[in-house]
Amino acid sequence: MTEPAVKAPEVSEPTPPPGRSFASRFLEELTSPSPVLVTVLAIFTALVVGAVLIVFSDENVLSTWGYFFAAPGDALSASWNAITAAYGALLSGAVGSGSALSETIVAATPLMLAGLGVALGFRAGLFNIGAQGQLIAGGMVAGFVGFAIHGLPVFVHLPLALAAGFLGGAAWGFIPGILKATTGAHEVITTIMLNYVAINLSLYLLASSTFRRPGRIDPISKIVAVPSRLPHLAGQGYRLHAGIIVALLAAVAVAWLLGRSTWGFELRAAGANPAAALTAGIDIRRATVMAMVLSGALAGLAGAGQVLGVQFSLAPGFSGQLGFDAITVALLGRANPFGVVLAALLFGALRAGGLNMQASTSTPIDIVAVIQSLIVIFVAAPALVRAIYRIRGARRADTGAPVSKGWGG
Amino acid sequence: MKLELKGITKRFPGVVANDSIDLAVGEGEIHALLGENGAGKTTLMNVLYGLYHADEGEILIDDEPVRFASPADAIAAGIGMVHQHFMLVPVFTVAENAVLGIEPTRRAGLLDRARARSEVRQLSRRFGLLVDPDAMVEDLPVGVQQRVEIIKALLREARLLILDEPTAVLTPQETEDLFSIMRSLQKSGHSVLFITHKLKEVLPVADRITVLRNGRVVGSTVPDETSEQELASMMVGRSVLLRVPKEAASPGETVLEVDGLSVLDDRGHLAVDDLSLRVRAGEIVALAGVQGNGQTELVEALTGLVPPLAGSVTLAGRRLEHASPRSVLRSGVAHVPEDRIKDGLVASFSVAENLVLNTYDTAPFARGPVMDPDAVHSSATERAREFDIRAPSVDVEVSTLSGGNQQKVIIARELSRPIRLLIASQPTRGLDVGSIEYVHRRIVEARDQGDAVLIVSSELDEVMALADRILVMFRGRIVGERPGGADRDEIGLLMAGAQGEVAS
Question: A297 near B341, Cβ under 8 Å?
Fold first, then answer.
């Protein structure tokens, strides 16, 4: 069964096949095997750069660098102290106590759900930049069902409100999906535009009498009914709510869909090579629409979780930047459902820990945003990380680059 | 110039791509480097061109050892390379492409177009290249684009030209033209190193032939002392059949009927023009034609990928001209697409997944929406054995397989379902001799089992080897029909557009 040892066509012919779309090459890079080491090193590198920024953001430490040549020990120890204090606070705020863990999970939950949605889109070859809009749509609909209906028992009202969020996001994902399938409109453009529509539509609705809380003139909604709320998991003292269970179940469901169902097979084939999928008789339009619908639905569920589990009412900006952070979570998780779970927990920890860091040291939480972004940059540019740590490339790094040059002459 | 490679060894992690290779090319010699895909030809040329550095061995030019750190050094030493995939700017003219990087300038750094044009014209005249310096490259046929690459090399004063699989993209006529260009280069003292896996081409044009296999030189000979059969055996390492034996066909009832079919291409031009054909059970009909005469669009229409403008397609009594690709496949059509990488396989999927790419939702691979990975896996293992798919396991990505094994995956997939008609487009393009033999044998087997077979091929050899009946397609129409054993040259003429009546 085995080839002769010397035969290696993929090495001797390194030219990539022409005519492949950016999306499929990106997808291949994203889901390529053995990215764990690169991911870990990317996180490490980002923390190192973050440490430098911590030093720079502390005036007292900076002043010791001013007389570095007179007393280098001062500068080094002050820097070390600042870094360990900041990262120590970050760590203890993330995992150092029960409430820290609770905050980490609360922050991770929406990132997990929306991140799963974005990852699902990636696997179908779709760049769903619209998680933010879908999340808002889901949150708005879930919130409405939460406060507009009264008198239902919890086992009816909560599933109903969650389903409403799911459907709200699904509807917001359906629009770019059907536009792409029928007219070829690129989902990056349409989802970005629909983000604006969702943001401004939500502002309009919040100011309307349907949503606005009686007695308030600022645009804040009525409070959702208690039976529609996600129950606390660790008592009233902690914010930890049942949304994390929903998110983990969603991760399992997405993993099953992608890996074990015929529908996931179609979706992955359509994403990895639409031409071959079409030739094999797969309805790639349907796969596109379905992927966008489900991607939006997961983001909508994230929005519902925020409204029903954390905020209990709708206010402008209730979505924060969750929909955009979800894209970075999906990238860091390599579009793999369980990778997304880990990435969301990491980002949740950075978020919860960052707040603690800001409170107990003078380091601003913006450092956390920088670290998150750097992680993604390093993950998105694996060649860079490989170069920094001199790891041999999986296969292309050594042989591919020079061949594309042609006449160097 | 005289070139000598001595003991060149190039290792990649886990493989020795070139194993102490010796090669000598004399001044004014056309030297063919023959070998299967993966034999190490391209690696060796990249070493020679300064793209890779040999781990061992040396390169001598006119008996002087040289070291190439980059292609710039190789070019400076008089080596020119024409890659398999051209490196041309499509929206530039021939002259502009030719001087790109070594632009002749006038005062103040202005581009001297006149000089560029006249230099190109001179070279074109001297070597019989027939290239208009003012033509836009994107408007030129592939064969002419290749000559632009040759001009580029000659302008940089190359004395040794490396042609990497130059005939892979050419029509039979263009191939002939290339050979006469190679001979005129030879007359002016240029050396040519001609890389190929096509046996037929080396005998008439080469002065000397070196055969590579598994990274080693397995022999070097001259055309007068060898034969195609012998070269094939050297390449593959065992004796191969250049022509698969087959009995006379015993055609049964008509399976495929195409009547008055017209199809537009993606730019809206009529690519298939009122075409009719029949394929019967148990016969191989070869649709011969130079690439771009509507074959691609015809197959797309037959397989439901593109709706036809007019006409009908009937498979065993069932109308299919407006059926979806899926219902065409499910009604018993096997389709081996022309571009196997683009349309036939999902590169990042495993061999096993690719083997069920169009049956993944049917029993036994799925029950309702639930797929059964074990069934997929065990069936794949069986197919790999049955169709001799050489892979470490069926779970590896199909992209890691050689071209021949990738094609075996597609053929295994298509022939493992109940079918009545096999449509195979360019089924052996780019494959090595051993794989061609295998694919041809499978196609003949499908016929002998009573399937109707339609082969679309621009390779005359393939048409002649397989066809029970030959239809020649030219500009969207069938311009001639001949029986299987027809005269090769006549088919070639028909493919080039000579009218059927005139040719016969």
Answer: no
CB atoms A273 and B347 under 8 Å: yes
Residue linked to tokens 């023959």 = B34
Tally C-beta pairs within 8 A across A and B: 160
| CATH no. for A36-65+72-389 | 1.10.3470
CA B117 to mean position of chain CA atoms = 33
Show the domain range for B401: 346-417
Residues in CB range of A389: below 8 A, 6 or more apart? A41
- Predicted TM-score (pTM) above 0.90: no
Whether residue B488 is found in the same domain as residue B394: no
Give Cα separations from B408 to A31, B354, B402, B440 (angstroms): 26, 11, 10, 11
Q: Which residues in chain B have Cβ-Cβ distances shorter than 8 Å to A3? A: 390, 402
Are B182 and B210 contacting, i.e. CB atoms less than 8 angstroms apart?
no
Q: Which residues in chain B touch residue A262, judged by CB atoms under 8 angstroms apart? A: 360-361, 366, 369-371
Answer yes or no: is B338 within a domain: no
B193 three-class SS: strand
A8, A18, A405: residue with CB nearest B85: A18
d(CA A54, CA A68): 18
Domain end point (choices B236, B263, B281): B236
Domain membership of residue B487 (yes or no) is: yes
Closest by alpha carbon to A137, among A319, A403, A266, A1?
Answer: A319
In this complex, which of B152, B344, B403 lies closest to A276 when CB atoms are compared? B344
Take residue B300 and report the two structure tokens written for it. 């797309």
Q: What is the pLDDT of residues B190-211, one digit of tens each?
A: 999 999 888 888 888 999 999 9
pLDDT band of A392, cuts 50, 70, 90: low
Does any CB of chain B come closer than 8 Å to the CB of residue A336? Answer: no
Contact A162, A304 (CB under 8 A): yes
Does residue B174 sit in the same domain as residue B279? no
Q: Is the pLDDT of residue A13 over 60?
A: no
Whether B390 and B422 share a structural domain:
no
Structural domain boundaries of chain A? 36-65+72-389
Distance from first CA to last CA of chain B, Å, rounded?
Answer: 48
Chain B residues 474-503 with CB within 8 Å of chain A:
none
